[in-house]
Predict the structure.
Amino acid sequence: MSLELLTILDQDGKAQKGKDPNLPAAELQKLYRLMVTTRALDDRGLALQRQGRIGFYLQSTGQEASHLGAAYALKDSDWLFPAYRQPGILLLRQVPIEKVICEWFGNAGDTSKGRQMPVHYSFRQANFVSISSPIGTQLTHAAGAGMAARMRGDDTVFMTFCGDGGTSSNDFHTGLNFAAVYKAPVVFVCENNGYAISVPSCKQTASESMAIKADAYGMPGVRVDGNDLLAVYRVCKEAVDRARRGDGPTLVETVTHRMASHSSSDDAARYRDAKDYEAWKKKDPIARFQLYLKHKKLWNDAFEKECVEGAKAAIQTAVNAAEAVANPGPETMFDDVYMNLTPQLKQQRQELHDLMLKGGVGAQVGHFPL
Ligand SMILES: Cc1ncc(C[n+]2csc(CCOP(=O)(O)OP(=O)(O)O)c2C)c(N)n1
Protein backbone atom coordinates (compact mmCIF):
# COMPACT_ATOMS: atom_id res chain seq x y z
CA MET A 1 0.00 0.00 0.00
CA SER A 2 1.83 3.08 -1.21
CA LEU A 3 0.62 6.61 -0.67
CA GLU A 4 3.67 7.97 -2.35
CA LEU A 5 2.92 9.58 -5.73
CA LEU A 6 4.53 7.40 -8.36
CA THR A 7 6.07 9.19 -11.34
CA ILE A 8 8.40 8.24 -14.16
CA LEU A 9 8.73 11.46 -16.19
CA ASP A 10 9.98 14.62 -14.52
CA GLN A 11 8.70 18.04 -15.65
CA ASP A 12 11.40 18.13 -18.33
CA GLY A 13 10.21 14.83 -19.78
CA LYS A 14 13.19 12.83 -18.56
CA ALA A 15 12.43 9.26 -17.47
CA GLN A 16 13.80 8.05 -14.14
CA LYS A 17 16.47 5.39 -14.51
CA GLY A 18 15.18 1.83 -14.52
CA LYS A 19 11.51 2.89 -14.59
CA ASP A 20 10.94 3.59 -18.29
CA PRO A 21 8.71 0.82 -19.70
CA ASN A 22 10.61 1.28 -22.99
CA LEU A 23 7.62 1.05 -25.28
CA PRO A 24 8.45 0.73 -29.00
CA ALA A 25 8.98 4.02 -30.85
CA ALA A 26 5.91 3.61 -33.07
CA GLU A 27 3.71 2.97 -30.01
CA LEU A 28 5.02 6.07 -28.23
CA GLN A 29 4.26 8.19 -31.29
CA LYS A 30 0.82 6.59 -31.56
CA LEU A 31 0.07 7.47 -27.93
CA TYR A 32 1.19 11.06 -28.48
CA ARG A 33 -1.00 11.36 -31.56
CA LEU A 34 -3.95 9.94 -29.61
CA MET A 35 -3.50 12.52 -26.84
CA VAL A 36 -3.29 15.35 -29.38
CA THR A 37 -6.38 14.08 -31.21
CA THR A 38 -8.31 13.68 -27.96
CA ARG A 39 -7.51 17.30 -27.02
CA ALA A 40 -8.53 18.52 -30.49
CA LEU A 41 -11.78 16.56 -30.28
CA ASP A 42 -12.47 18.20 -26.94
CA ASP A 43 -11.86 21.70 -28.27
CA ARG A 44 -14.18 21.01 -31.19
CA GLY A 45 -16.88 19.52 -28.97
CA LEU A 46 -17.03 22.60 -26.76
CA ALA A 47 -16.95 24.91 -29.79
CA LEU A 48 -19.92 23.09 -31.38
CA GLN A 49 -21.84 23.41 -28.13
CA ARG A 50 -21.07 27.14 -27.90
CA GLN A 51 -22.24 27.55 -31.50
CA GLY A 52 -25.53 25.89 -30.55
CA ARG A 53 -24.95 22.96 -32.88
CA ILE A 54 -24.95 20.37 -30.08
CA GLY A 55 -26.69 20.61 -26.73
CA PHE A 56 -24.08 19.60 -24.18
CA TYR A 57 -20.42 18.70 -23.84
CA LEU A 58 -18.06 17.36 -21.16
CA GLN A 59 -14.35 18.08 -21.60
CA SER A 60 -11.47 15.84 -20.60
CA THR A 61 -8.69 18.39 -21.17
CA GLY A 62 -5.71 17.66 -18.90
CA GLN A 63 -6.78 14.05 -18.34
CA GLU A 64 -5.56 12.56 -21.63
CA ALA A 65 -2.53 10.77 -20.12
CA SER A 66 -4.58 9.50 -17.22
CA HIS A 67 -7.16 7.61 -19.24
CA LEU A 68 -5.05 6.71 -22.28
CA GLY A 69 -2.16 5.43 -20.15
CA ALA A 70 -4.61 3.31 -18.15
CA ALA A 71 -6.50 1.80 -21.08
CA TYR A 72 -3.30 1.15 -23.03
CA ALA A 73 -2.46 -1.47 -20.39
CA LEU A 74 -5.47 -3.56 -21.51
CA LYS A 75 -5.88 -6.08 -24.31
CA ASP A 76 -8.51 -5.26 -26.93
CA SER A 77 -10.63 -8.13 -25.62
CA ASP A 78 -10.81 -6.53 -22.14
CA TRP A 79 -13.78 -4.37 -21.19
CA LEU A 80 -14.23 -0.76 -20.14
CA PHE A 81 -16.86 0.70 -17.82
CA PRO A 82 -16.12 4.41 -18.18
CA ALA A 83 -17.09 7.57 -16.31
CA TYR A 84 -17.43 10.95 -18.09
CA ARG A 85 -13.95 11.83 -19.22
CA GLN A 86 -12.24 9.04 -21.15
CA PRO A 87 -12.97 9.79 -24.83
CA GLY A 88 -9.39 9.00 -25.89
CA ILE A 89 -10.13 5.33 -25.25
CA LEU A 90 -12.60 5.34 -28.13
CA LEU A 91 -9.84 6.53 -30.44
CA LEU A 92 -7.42 3.98 -28.98
CA ARG A 93 -10.00 1.28 -29.70
CA GLN A 94 -10.41 2.60 -33.25
CA VAL A 95 -13.98 3.80 -33.03
CA PRO A 96 -14.37 6.04 -36.13
CA ILE A 97 -14.38 9.73 -35.16
CA GLU A 98 -17.56 10.21 -37.16
CA LYS A 99 -19.38 7.69 -34.92
CA VAL A 100 -18.16 9.58 -31.84
CA ILE A 101 -19.46 12.86 -33.27
CA CYS A 102 -22.78 11.33 -34.36
CA GLU A 103 -23.29 10.63 -30.65
CA TRP A 104 -22.90 14.35 -29.86
CA PHE A 105 -25.61 15.17 -32.40
CA GLY A 106 -27.81 12.28 -31.25
CA ASN A 107 -28.60 11.57 -34.89
CA ALA A 108 -29.49 8.36 -36.74
CA GLY A 109 -25.79 7.45 -36.94
CA ASP A 110 -25.50 7.46 -33.15
CA THR A 111 -25.34 4.00 -31.57
CA SER A 112 -27.89 5.11 -28.97
CA LYS A 113 -30.15 6.71 -31.64
CA GLY A 114 -30.20 9.99 -29.78
CA ARG A 115 -31.62 8.52 -26.58
CA GLN A 116 -28.61 9.29 -24.42
CA MET A 117 -27.15 12.61 -23.38
CA PRO A 118 -24.36 13.82 -25.65
CA VAL A 119 -20.94 12.42 -24.63
CA HIS A 120 -22.52 9.35 -22.99
CA TYR A 121 -20.92 6.96 -25.43
CA SER A 122 -21.65 3.29 -25.87
CA PHE A 123 -19.65 1.17 -28.31
CA ARG A 124 -20.19 -2.56 -28.20
CA GLN A 125 -17.52 -3.24 -30.84
CA ALA A 126 -14.97 -1.52 -28.61
CA ASN A 127 -16.12 -3.32 -25.42
CA PHE A 128 -16.95 0.16 -24.13
CA VAL A 129 -20.06 -0.01 -21.95
CA SER A 130 -22.45 2.95 -21.95
CA ILE A 131 -21.52 5.91 -19.79
CA SER A 132 -24.29 6.57 -17.33
CA SER A 133 -25.08 9.90 -15.69
CA PRO A 134 -25.56 8.62 -12.12
CA ILE A 135 -22.19 8.77 -10.45
CA GLY A 136 -20.56 5.44 -9.61
CA THR A 137 -22.99 2.95 -11.15
CA GLN A 138 -20.29 1.70 -13.52
CA LEU A 139 -18.22 0.51 -10.54
CA THR A 140 -20.79 -2.10 -9.58
CA HIS A 141 -21.34 -3.07 -13.21
CA ALA A 142 -17.61 -3.72 -13.62
CA ALA A 143 -17.48 -5.68 -10.37
CA GLY A 144 -20.38 -7.86 -11.51
CA ALA A 145 -18.91 -8.42 -14.97
CA GLY A 146 -15.59 -9.33 -13.34
CA MET A 147 -17.27 -11.79 -10.97
CA ALA A 148 -19.03 -13.42 -13.92
CA ALA A 149 -15.78 -13.76 -15.89
CA ARG A 150 -14.09 -15.36 -12.90
CA MET A 151 -16.93 -17.86 -12.53
CA ARG A 152 -16.70 -18.67 -16.24
CA GLY A 153 -12.95 -19.09 -15.89
CA ASP A 154 -11.97 -16.70 -18.67
CA ASP A 155 -9.12 -14.26 -18.26
CA THR A 156 -10.82 -11.01 -19.35
CA VAL A 157 -9.99 -7.91 -17.33
CA PHE A 158 -12.47 -5.12 -16.60
CA MET A 159 -11.33 -1.54 -16.14
CA THR A 160 -13.64 1.05 -14.70
CA PHE A 161 -13.24 4.75 -14.01
CA CYS A 162 -14.64 7.23 -11.52
CA GLY A 163 -13.76 10.71 -10.33
CA ASP A 164 -12.75 11.79 -6.84
CA GLY A 165 -16.43 12.64 -6.27
CA GLY A 166 -17.31 9.13 -7.36
CA THR A 167 -15.55 7.72 -4.30
CA SER A 168 -18.33 9.24 -2.15
CA SER A 169 -21.04 7.30 -3.99
CA ASN A 170 -22.80 4.26 -2.55
CA ASP A 171 -21.71 2.25 -5.56
CA PHE A 172 -18.05 2.88 -4.82
CA HIS A 173 -18.47 0.94 -1.59
CA THR A 174 -20.56 -1.82 -3.15
CA GLY A 175 -18.35 -2.19 -6.22
CA LEU A 176 -15.04 -2.30 -4.39
CA ASN A 177 -16.34 -4.54 -1.63
CA PHE A 178 -17.82 -7.14 -3.98
CA ALA A 179 -14.82 -7.05 -6.30
CA ALA A 180 -12.39 -7.64 -3.43
CA VAL A 181 -14.45 -10.35 -1.73
CA TYR A 182 -14.88 -12.26 -5.00
CA LYS A 183 -11.37 -11.47 -6.30
CA ALA A 184 -12.93 -10.05 -9.43
CA PRO A 185 -10.47 -9.12 -12.20
CA VAL A 186 -11.21 -5.40 -12.03
CA VAL A 187 -8.99 -2.34 -12.16
CA PHE A 188 -10.69 0.63 -10.51
CA VAL A 189 -9.18 3.86 -11.81
CA CYS A 190 -10.12 6.93 -9.78
CA GLU A 191 -9.17 10.03 -11.76
CA ASN A 192 -8.69 12.56 -8.99
CA ASN A 193 -9.01 15.76 -10.98
CA GLY A 194 -9.46 18.01 -7.96
CA TYR A 195 -13.17 18.73 -8.29
CA ALA A 196 -16.63 17.18 -8.34
CA ILE A 197 -18.43 19.95 -10.22
CA SER A 198 -17.65 22.85 -7.82
CA VAL A 199 -16.71 20.77 -4.75
CA PRO A 200 -12.93 20.48 -4.28
CA SER A 201 -11.63 17.01 -3.35
CA CYS A 202 -10.55 18.23 0.10
CA LYS A 203 -14.25 18.81 0.88
CA GLN A 204 -15.22 15.50 -0.69
CA THR A 205 -13.39 13.23 1.69
CA ALA A 206 -11.52 13.33 4.99
CA SER A 207 -9.26 10.51 3.80
CA GLU A 208 -5.62 11.29 3.12
CA SER A 209 -6.06 10.22 -0.49
CA MET A 210 -8.43 8.26 -2.71
CA ALA A 211 -6.00 5.35 -2.99
CA ILE A 212 -5.93 4.80 0.79
CA LYS A 213 -9.60 3.77 0.64
CA ALA A 214 -8.47 0.53 -1.01
CA ASP A 215 -7.00 -0.62 2.29
CA ALA A 216 -10.43 -0.89 3.90
CA TYR A 217 -11.66 -3.13 1.09
CA GLY A 218 -8.63 -5.42 1.18
CA MET A 219 -7.07 -4.56 -2.15
CA PRO A 220 -3.92 -2.70 -3.15
CA GLY A 221 -4.22 1.06 -3.61
CA VAL A 222 -1.71 3.02 -5.67
CA ARG A 223 -1.32 6.77 -6.24
CA VAL A 224 0.20 7.78 -9.51
CA ASP A 225 0.90 11.05 -11.29
CA GLY A 226 -2.03 11.21 -13.70
CA ASN A 227 -0.25 13.63 -16.03
CA ASP A 228 2.57 11.17 -16.63
CA LEU A 229 1.41 8.72 -19.27
CA LEU A 230 4.24 6.26 -18.70
CA ALA A 231 3.69 6.11 -14.94
CA VAL A 232 -0.06 5.57 -15.36
CA TYR A 233 0.60 2.87 -17.93
CA ARG A 234 3.11 1.11 -15.71
CA VAL A 235 0.94 1.11 -12.61
CA CYS A 236 -2.13 0.01 -14.55
CA LYS A 237 -0.20 -2.71 -16.37
CA GLU A 238 0.75 -4.20 -13.00
CA ALA A 239 -2.87 -3.97 -11.86
CA VAL A 240 -4.14 -5.54 -15.10
CA ASP A 241 -1.60 -8.38 -14.88
CA ARG A 242 -2.55 -8.96 -11.27
CA ALA A 243 -6.25 -9.12 -12.18
CA ARG A 244 -5.56 -11.48 -15.10
CA ARG A 245 -3.56 -13.80 -12.85
CA GLY A 246 -6.63 -14.14 -10.63
CA ASP A 247 -5.19 -12.12 -7.74
CA GLY A 248 -8.10 -9.68 -7.63
CA PRO A 249 -8.79 -5.98 -8.01
CA THR A 250 -6.66 -2.87 -7.51
CA LEU A 251 -7.60 0.75 -6.91
CA VAL A 252 -5.43 3.18 -8.87
CA GLU A 253 -5.70 6.89 -8.07
CA THR A 254 -4.44 9.05 -10.92
CA VAL A 255 -3.68 12.50 -9.55
CA THR A 256 -4.54 15.02 -12.25
CA HIS A 257 -6.55 18.17 -12.77
CA ARG A 258 -9.76 19.06 -14.54
CA MET A 259 -8.47 21.89 -16.71
CA ALA A 260 -11.91 22.82 -18.06
CA SER A 261 -15.27 23.42 -16.42
CA HIS A 262 -17.27 20.44 -15.22
CA SER A 263 -19.37 20.61 -18.38
CA SER A 264 -20.57 23.09 -20.96
CA SER A 265 -23.18 24.16 -18.39
CA ASP A 266 -20.94 25.74 -15.73
CA ASP A 267 -18.04 28.18 -15.44
CA ALA A 268 -15.12 26.88 -13.38
CA ALA A 269 -13.65 30.38 -13.06
CA ARG A 270 -16.39 31.08 -10.50
CA TYR A 271 -15.20 28.44 -8.04
CA ARG A 272 -11.72 27.30 -9.05
CA ASP A 273 -8.56 28.50 -7.35
CA ALA A 274 -6.83 30.52 -10.09
CA LYS A 275 -3.32 29.93 -8.69
CA ASP A 276 -3.90 26.22 -8.58
CA TYR A 277 -5.08 26.25 -12.16
CA GLU A 278 -2.01 28.16 -13.34
CA ALA A 279 0.27 25.68 -11.54
CA TRP A 280 -1.46 22.72 -13.18
CA LYS A 281 -1.22 24.35 -16.60
CA LYS A 282 2.55 23.95 -16.33
CA LYS A 283 2.08 20.20 -15.78
CA ASP A 284 0.26 19.60 -19.05
CA PRO A 285 0.45 15.86 -19.81
CA ILE A 286 0.82 16.35 -23.56
CA ALA A 287 3.66 18.85 -23.20
CA ARG A 288 5.52 16.53 -20.83
CA PHE A 289 5.20 13.55 -23.12
CA GLN A 290 6.29 15.70 -26.05
CA LEU A 291 9.55 16.53 -24.20
CA TYR A 292 10.09 12.84 -23.54
CA LEU A 293 9.65 12.05 -27.24
CA LYS A 294 12.02 14.88 -28.11
CA HIS A 295 14.74 13.38 -25.86
CA LYS A 296 14.20 10.10 -27.70
CA LYS A 297 14.41 11.87 -31.07
CA LEU A 298 10.85 10.80 -31.83
CA TRP A 299 9.42 14.31 -32.06
CA ASN A 300 10.15 17.27 -34.33
CA ASP A 301 8.18 20.16 -35.82
CA ALA A 302 7.13 18.15 -38.86
CA PHE A 303 5.73 15.34 -36.65
CA GLU A 304 3.91 17.91 -34.50
CA LYS A 305 2.36 19.52 -37.56
CA GLU A 306 1.32 16.14 -38.90
CA CYS A 307 -0.34 15.23 -35.57
CA VAL A 308 -2.11 18.57 -35.04
CA GLU A 309 -3.15 19.22 -38.64
CA GLY A 310 -4.02 15.55 -39.16
CA ALA A 311 -6.29 15.55 -36.10
CA LYS A 312 -7.99 18.80 -37.11
CA ALA A 313 -8.62 17.58 -40.66
CA ALA A 314 -9.97 14.20 -39.52
CA ILE A 315 -12.28 15.91 -37.03
CA GLN A 316 -13.48 18.45 -39.62
CA THR A 317 -14.31 15.67 -42.09
CA ALA A 318 -16.12 13.77 -39.35
CA VAL A 319 -18.11 16.84 -38.21
CA ASN A 320 -19.21 17.54 -41.80
CA ALA A 321 -20.30 13.93 -42.26
CA ALA A 322 -22.02 13.65 -38.88
CA GLU A 323 -23.89 16.93 -39.23
CA ALA A 324 -25.32 15.75 -42.54
CA VAL A 325 -26.85 12.63 -40.94
CA ALA A 326 -30.60 12.92 -40.32
CA ASN A 327 -32.18 12.69 -36.89
CA PRO A 328 -33.63 9.33 -35.88
CA GLY A 329 -37.23 9.05 -37.08
CA PRO A 330 -39.89 9.34 -34.33
CA GLU A 331 -40.92 5.73 -35.00
CA THR A 332 -37.54 4.50 -33.72
CA MET A 333 -38.77 5.13 -30.18
CA PHE A 334 -40.58 1.81 -30.48
CA ASP A 335 -37.40 -0.10 -31.32
CA ASP A 336 -34.94 -1.99 -29.13
CA VAL A 337 -36.91 -2.35 -25.90
CA TYR A 338 -39.10 -5.38 -26.62
CA MET A 339 -38.36 -8.16 -29.07
CA ASN A 340 -42.11 -8.26 -29.77
CA LEU A 341 -44.06 -5.07 -29.22
CA THR A 342 -46.90 -5.25 -26.70
CA PRO A 343 -50.43 -4.76 -28.16
CA GLN A 344 -50.58 -1.25 -26.63
CA LEU A 345 -47.28 -0.23 -28.17
CA LYS A 346 -48.33 -1.69 -31.52
CA GLN A 347 -51.44 0.47 -31.39
CA GLN A 348 -49.44 3.58 -30.49
CA ARG A 349 -47.03 2.87 -33.33
CA GLN A 350 -50.01 2.62 -35.72
CA GLU A 351 -51.36 5.94 -34.43
CA LEU A 352 -47.99 7.61 -35.00
CA HIS A 353 -47.83 6.14 -38.49
CA ASP A 354 -51.31 7.52 -39.34
CA LEU A 355 -50.49 10.91 -37.87
CA MET A 356 -47.34 11.16 -39.94
CA LEU A 357 -49.25 10.21 -43.09
CA LYS A 358 -51.68 13.05 -42.40
CA GLY A 359 -48.78 15.50 -42.08
CA GLY A 360 -48.66 15.56 -38.29
CA VAL A 361 -45.69 15.02 -36.01
CA GLY A 362 -42.54 13.91 -37.84
CA ALA A 363 -44.28 14.11 -41.22
CA GLN A 364 -41.20 15.69 -42.76
CA VAL A 365 -39.28 12.44 -42.30
CA GLY A 366 -41.96 10.55 -44.20
CA HIS A 367 -44.12 7.65 -43.09
CA PHE A 368 -42.42 4.46 -42.04
CA PRO A 369 -43.20 0.90 -43.02
CA LEU A 370 -45.36 -0.92 -40.52
C1 LIG B 1 -25.68 9.69 -7.96
C2 LIG B 1 -25.43 11.06 -8.51
N1 LIG B 1 -25.35 12.11 -7.66
C3 LIG B 1 -25.12 13.35 -8.14
C4 LIG B 1 -24.99 13.56 -9.49
C5 LIG B 1 -24.71 14.95 -10.04
N2 LIG B 1 -23.33 15.01 -10.49
C6 LIG B 1 -23.02 14.90 -11.80
S1 LIG B 1 -21.37 14.96 -12.06
C7 LIG B 1 -21.05 15.13 -10.42
C8 LIG B 1 -19.63 15.24 -9.93
C9 LIG B 1 -18.73 14.17 -10.39
O1 LIG B 1 -17.46 14.41 -9.90
P1 LIG B 1 -16.32 13.33 -9.98
O2 LIG B 1 -16.83 11.99 -9.62
O3 LIG B 1 -15.17 13.86 -9.23
O4 LIG B 1 -15.98 13.25 -11.54
P2 LIG B 1 -15.52 14.41 -12.54
O5 LIG B 1 -16.79 15.05 -13.04
O6 LIG B 1 -14.66 15.34 -11.79
O7 LIG B 1 -14.81 13.71 -13.62
C10 LIG B 1 -22.23 15.14 -9.68
C11 LIG B 1 -22.28 15.30 -8.23
C12 LIG B 1 -25.11 12.43 -10.34
N3 LIG B 1 -24.96 12.54 -11.64
N4 LIG B 1 -25.31 11.20 -9.81
Q: What stands out?
A: Residues 330-365 form one domain. The longest helix spans residues 25-50. The CA atoms of residues 118 and 171 lie 23 Å apart. DSSP finds 13 helices and eight strands in the chain.
